[in-house]
Amino acid sequence: MEDKIEPIRDAFGRALVKVGEKYPQVAVFCCDIFTATKTDEFKKKYPNRFFECGIAESNAISQAAGYALEGGRPFVASFSHFLTAMYLPITQSVVQNGAPVVFVGSHPGLAIGEDGPTQMGMRDIAVMKVFPNVEIIEPVDTNETEQVVEYLAKTRNIAYLRIGRAPVPQLTSKDYKFRIGKGNLLKDGKDAVIVASGYPVSTSLQAANELKSEKGIDIAVINMSSIKPYDKKLVLKMTEKTGNVFVVQDHYIHGGIADFIARDLLENGTKTRLKVWGVTDMAQCGSRKELYEHYMLDSNGIKLKLLEFLK
Amino acid sequence: MFEEEKKCIAEAPNEPSFCPQCGSEFILQKDKQMCNKCGYEQISFLSPSIEIEESLRQQKENDAAKMIIDKTKISNISLPQHAKNIRKMIIDMLCCAKSGHSGSSLSATDIVTTLIFDEMNWLNEKDFSKRDRFILSKGHACPVLYSSLAEAGFIPREEIKTLRKLNSRLQGHPIRSCLPEFINSTAGALGQGLSVGLGMARYFKQFKKDNRVYVVLGDGELQEGQVWEAIMCGGNCGLDNVVAIIDKNGAQNDGLVKDIMPLNPLDKKLKSFGWNVISVDGHDFRQIKNAFKIARETVGKPTVIIADTEKGRLGPGKVFMNGAHVIKSILEEDYNDAINYLDGED
Known about the structure:
The structure holds 2 protein chains of 2 kinds.
Chain A: E1 2-7, H1 8-22, E2 26-30, H2 34-37, H3 40-45, E3 50-52, H4 57-69, E4 73-79, H5 80-83, H6 87-96, E5 102-106, H7 124-128, E6 134-137, H8 142-154, E7 158-163, E8 167-170, E9 184-187, E10 192-196, H9 199-215, E11 219-223, E12 226-228, H10 232-242, E13 244-252, H11 257-268, E14 273-279, H12 288-294, H13 299-310
Parallel strand pairs in A: 2-3, 2-4, 4-5, 5-7, 6-7, 10-11, 10-13, 13-14
Antiparallel strand pairs in A: 1-8, 6-12, 9-11
Helix pairs in contact in A: 1-8, 4-6, 9-13
Chain B: H1 3-11, E1 16-18, E2 25-27, H2 48-66, H3 71-75, H4 79-97, H5 102-107, H6 109-119, E3 133-136, H7 142-152, H8 193-206, E4 213-218, H9 225-237, E5 242-248, E6 251-252, E7 255-256, H10 257-260, H11 266-272, E8 276-281, H12 285-297, E9 303-308, E10 313-315, E11 318-319, H13 332-344
Parallel strand pairs in B: 3-4, 4-5, 5-9, 8-9
Antiparallel strand pairs in B: 1-2, 6-7, 10-11
Helix pairs in contact in B: 4-6, 4-7, 4-13, 6-7, 6-12, 8-9
């Protein structure tokens, strides 16, 4: 583990430039937001593969679909909240056409802070997870982000990439290798297992470490960056081991990865206790710190919720 | 497929992947992703374009023998005669399906006929990657596309009877995966085709390919906001390999366009967005052909052809079932009247 703290979107921008060199079919369709999605470096380096579509996400998505159908690998980048709201073009132009587009949704969850709920990607996973042929990936740190971008550039599945805004510590080790459908057990434990993706992984890990030293409670933490398909085997294994599953999502409490997990646990007949924690109302503005504190998604909040659950 | 990309895909190592169900390692296979241990199969998680390339290749091999297009036979037939045959097939197929959009199919017939039998390089070009692209953005008019494909010999004539039937390639609105070589984009939800076409055009421009992109829209469809996003974008990007054709038949589901959401002056609107605008009589082959010729000669801006048409048109002064937008079933007398009219016109 390293102490380097960097927002994931910075690593995304860097990685995109790197894959742009290797893969000539990679292009960016932008919706007047390149400084926020960090695609500006790509624009500088490959101006003829950077398509500015203006504040018109539907048009950008359908154009990317046409580009992809001919053989390109377009990354359509915008705020996750705006991008995933264009549901009809996503459904018809991309999914029903089988057009291998990568959606890049930035600013998911509460992290955008002061800008408030009309800018927060709070239901993006919920709407993207229903399609049978769309992968959903939310990398946990910059190391993983670079690997995920490389993976997306060389494969041709439709994918939704959720990239966070908050600076995050490095949680994956140097020899870690991202694999689709594979979770990463960051900390083992016997009393409960936390499943999370994105920003809450680091706060969950902190909460687990604190509970271990303060109360001797031993909690495992899984980084489930591959949200769809997710690592069912790992979750089932850890559920059977601990008997307590706690899912944390920086997303509305409904519609996140917990839905898959709950369904699979039930279908599998696994005897377990399950608690899902996420944003329970429409969210509001505030500083990032205040928001995670208010919605009990910081390490303290997660700790309290866990203790409540394990009582 | 773009050569470089082929290379990249070929060079990409076979990544070991893990079964989401049982977790055992399995290798991504080209045709499917299946776990050897527990049998878990991932639904269509592989490259659609590789899939399509592969299916096209197989289709070409299979069809080569039995489906060779007799070009001499086709080239001996005039455009009006093709259009007449296509109109007959439209009525036949809707009669079999007992539902569908006759009015929009018949109004666009002369436009689509000119595109497939004259303007686009579909009949002369065997290589899909070099073919022009056709997007029927007003997807509900797909009977005209299917009939044209049958008329050209791209699909068997008997197949038109499967329109709207279970497991048919001729879905009620066109689905690309059913006939990827001819349905270049899925359509049905209105307003998206022009954007998809612009994306294709950008690809062709970027990789210096000569393919042209043709998108047919309805005039009612122009009420969709996304169409204007695409018009704004297309005009500003100067994509001169795109031709949009507006089948201006003046009617939509709830009534007349001029009552529901008047469009005029459409030509001025489009011109102000930076498009090369040509207005034609959408049933006059000479005018339609000439418009396409001008579009080819236009450099630096995309062309939009406003084709004035008549909903449900069979011939001069003759429309089918009052130009209805949707029909539920066809009465025998309407059917006979239409077919006799089209036959008698010979």
